[in-house]
Amino acid sequence: GDGGEGEAGEWWREQRGRIEKDVHRTDRNVPIFQGEDAPHPDPNSPFADVGTNVHLEQMKEMLLTYNEYNKELGYVQGMSDLLSPIYAVIQDDAIAFWGFQKFMERMERNFLRDQSGMRGQLLTLDQLVNFMDPKLWNHLQSADSTNFFFFFRMILVWYKREFAWVDILRLWEGLWTDYLSAEFHIFIALAILEKHRDVIMGHLKAFDEVLKYVNELSNTMDLESTLIRAEALFRKFQRLVEAVDKKQNFPGPRASSSSQAPSPQSQSQTQTPPKGKETETQQKVISPELRNLLNRKVEVLPRKTVAQKGDGMPGN
């Protein structure tokens, strides 16, 4: 169909056009999506003269179905990247659709109109780098790079365009287990930064340089060593948090009522150390965002939030 009349019909046709363009650009180097051995069913498609294949059409149907299923969010560019590995492995459109729908529950925050979900994850990465490696954070700050926007694409589609296809299948299956953390993808980002720390600190002095360098890492990174490094960094983070918590819970020195000394815990609540400037007397502060990195429970956005911040059907 053509989506009907009015604003809703116009929205549907616009969504269908987005899906059409995105699917024809998604993973065309993967054998299942290669070739155009079938005539295109829509003569008005920009790809009508090129043709299509059965798997591309299945992908389009699933994304259109999801667009209807989740009218609060709608289809947003990048979702085809999240569906293609699931469909290519399962090759059953019904099972693949529900697998994709479940995956999207945790990924919805990446596709909100106001980008609040993405900003939140980049802020968490900012805090994590500052907590784990203040010297690197200071350098990135001097290069106007602590917005970590150069990791936007990686986090948006879970490194889909950074690693080889077979590596993505392995990476995602690992991330889906939530074995150490439901936010373990943030530690993948930290591992990539730490791997390239010397180059970043020694040679990259401005945001454009950092952005260019990180973008050019695409399809050059080794997954195995990245995962090993990410797990080691998580374990280190875990130990640091435990150490800070123990220190804060340790009883302070006794003092007379006239000269009551604040406890380490009260100090930590009132004195926030400057980022990257920690000394022995200034304690690291565990923000709620950092503490959430230890959580293995996947956070799913309330439908009300998606309806307010999604790019879904008008008046929905």
UniProtKB/TrEMBL annotation:
Keywords: GTPase activation. Gene3D superfamilies: putative rabgap domain of human tbc1 domain family member 14 like domains, Ypt/Rab-GAP domain of gyp1p, domain 3. Residues 255-274 have a biased composition (Low complexity). One of its GO terms (cellular component) is cytoplasm. SMART domains: TBC. It comes from the Eukaryota. GO terms for molecular function: GTPase activator activity. Residues 1-20, 248-291, 297-316 are annotated as: Disordered. InterPro entries: Rab-GAP-TBC_dom (IPR000195), Rab-GAP_TBC_sf (IPR035969). PANTHER family: SMALL G PROTEIN SIGNALING MODULATOR 2-RELATED (PTHR22957:SF502), TBC1 DOMAIN FAMILY MEMBER GTPASE-ACTIVATING PROTEIN (PTHR22957). This is Rab-GAP TBC domain-containing protein. It comes from Photinus pyralis (Common eastern firefly).
